[in-house]
């Protein structure tokens, strides 16, 4: 029998990677992996308009996040801006690095999204 944490991690690991969605937004053709609703949400959040520096930071922080937690960064972007997304990613990564949040607290934060 799986523990509650194992079930939660399995659920989080099934979530699409926001960084991969960003790459798919750049493609002209429709990608099967991203829904129209998700494409619209990402577009409204301005993720398709990231500057080269913002994109570089996003990719770097996202890679660090996945490496640290072993699940993708998850954030509800429906009413978010690109600044909100970047700030949340950097903040959650920094908080975990500085001991402000624990691994289990980050799991809870990701599930809340």
Offer a quick outline of the entry.
With about 110 residues, the chain is an all-alpha fold.
Description:
By secondary structure, the chain is mostly helical. It contains six helices and no strands. It has helices at residues 4-13, 18-26, 36-44, 52-69, 82-97, 103-112. Helix 1 packs across helix 6 and helix 4 packs parallel to helix 5. The longest helix is centred in the middle third of the chain and has 18 residues, at 52-69. It is globular and about 40 Å long. The two termini are 26 Å apart. The model has no long low-confidence stretch (mean pLDDT 82).
Number of strands: 0
| Structural class designation | mainly alpha
Envelope shape = globular
Mean pLDDT: 82
Low-confidence stretches: none
Question: Proportion of β residues?
Answer: under 5%
Write down the Rg.
14 Å
Total helices: the number is: 6
Element string (H = helix, E = strand): HHHHHH
Helicity, as a percent range:
55-70%
Give the helix/strand layout.
Elements: H1 4-13, H2 18-26, H3 36-44, H4 52-69, H5 82-97, H6 103-112
Helix pairs in contact: 1-6, 4-5
């Amino acid at each position: 029998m799986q523990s509650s944490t194992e079930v939660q991690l399995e659920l989080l690991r099934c979530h699409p990677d926001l960084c991969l969605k960003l790459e798919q937004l750049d493609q002209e053709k429709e990608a099967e992996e991203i829904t129209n609703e998700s494409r619209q949400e990402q577009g409204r959040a301005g993720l398709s308009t990231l500057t080269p520096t913002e994109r570089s930071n996003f990719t770097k922080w996202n890679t660090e996040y996945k490496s640290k937690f072993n699940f993708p960064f998850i954030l509800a972007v429906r009413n978010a801006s690109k600044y909100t997304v970047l700030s949340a990613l950097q903040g959650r990564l920094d908080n975990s690095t500085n001991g402000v949040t624990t691994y289990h607290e980050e799991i809870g934060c990701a599930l809340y999204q």
